[in-house]
Write a structure and sequence with these properties.
- The protein is of the alpha/beta class.
- The chain has 2 domains: 99 residues, Ribonuclease H-like superfamily/Ribonuclease H (Nucleotidyltransferase, domain 5, 2-Layer Sandwich), CATH 3.30.420; 151 residues, 2-Layer Sandwich (Nucleotidyltransferase, domain 5).
- It contains 8 helices and 10 strands.
- A hairpin with a 4-residue loop joins strand 7 and strand 8.
């Protein structure tokens, strides 16, 4: 069954406020995510971006044998849409996320974060050479089961998080966190900080990488080609602000996944973690 979600957010810090909505559709095998934006941060701006996303999903669902289940994360917008549900005959507007929908909401959130990052990078590129970004990474794994939470965070509080459900070791998690940083901030020179000496050894020469470790190292090296990317070790749990934030984000991602916490709550927790970094900018 094909399902869809629409996640929304408002951001400031570019030249003006921006309302964003991301639609993620899963047809059982592949994901399709689109981001829609409307300048402004008022409720009607957010509604406009959501309606653009709804129209896209509705066109995708047109002609299907049965209405496509759609969950919209913003409760106020969701209520307004349900009041006019007859205008979207190809959609089944659901009140709570079910099945794979929570995972799709995280994909949509990541897409919006990447869009905002790309806008900021484009603005900075127009202003001149881009400065090196310092990004801390970390991973968190439960000792009793597979799966790791991975995270990376910049000095200005811009962050990425995700859960890799099939990762089976802390080392793989640490490398996946580095991979997340290098793939997320492609438009800048990077200085990546990790508290894993083993991960740094894997990225160096002469380390006998195998299996998932070798695959992840190869991907990091591929993403780093033609760019200024350097990696450094930082002592973990020693009060380094970026390392501490990355650690807390990774733990929050893992625990939120394990406890099936609502995506909006997970995002609020992550925003709270990086609030001191944002305030210091």
């Amino acid at each position: 069954m094909t399902i869809a979600v629409i996640h929304t957010r408002h951001t400031a810090g570019t030249e003006s406020d921006l309302s964003l909505s991301a639609a993620t559709i899963h047809d059982g095998t592949a994901l399709d995510t689109r981001v829609f934006t409307t300048p402004g941060g008022e409720d009607h701006h957010r509604l406009a971006s959501v309606l653009d996303a709804v129209e896209y999903v509705h066109e995708y669902a047109a002609g299907a044998e049965a209405p496509m289940p759609l969950y919209v994360s913003d409760s106020r917008v969701r209520s307004e849409l349900q009041a006019v549900a007859g205008s979207f005959a190809a959609l089944d507007l659901v009140g709570t996320p079910r099945g794979r929908m929570p995972a799709l909401l995280l994909t949509a959130a990541d897409a919006m974060s990447q869009h905002v990052s790309d806008l900021a990078a484009a603005a900075a590129a127009a202003a001149g050479p881009l400065p090196e970004l310092v990004v801390a990474t970390d991973a968190s794994k439960c000792s009793r089961r597979r799966g790791v939470g991975v995270a990376c965070v910049r000095a200005d509080g811009v962050r990425r998080q995700k859960v890799v459900a099939d990762a089976d070791s802390v080392l793989v998690g640490e490398l996946l966190a580095i991979d997340l940083a290098v793939s997320s901030f492609r438009n800048h020179p990077l200085h990546v900080l990790t508290d894993s000496r083993a991960a740094l050894a894997c990225l160096g020469s002469g380390y006998p990488n195998r299996g998932r470790v070798a695959k992840t190292v190869d991907h990091i090296r591929y993403l780093s080609r033609g760019r200024r990317v350097r990696f450094s070790w930082v002592r973990g749990h020693a009060g380094h602000p970026l390392n501490e934030a990355a650690h807390r984000l990774a733990v929050a991602a893992r625990r939120g996944h394990e406890a099936h916490i609502d995506p909006d709550v997970r995002e609020a927790v992550a925003d709270n973690i990086v609030a001191p970094l944002r305030a210091a900018v």
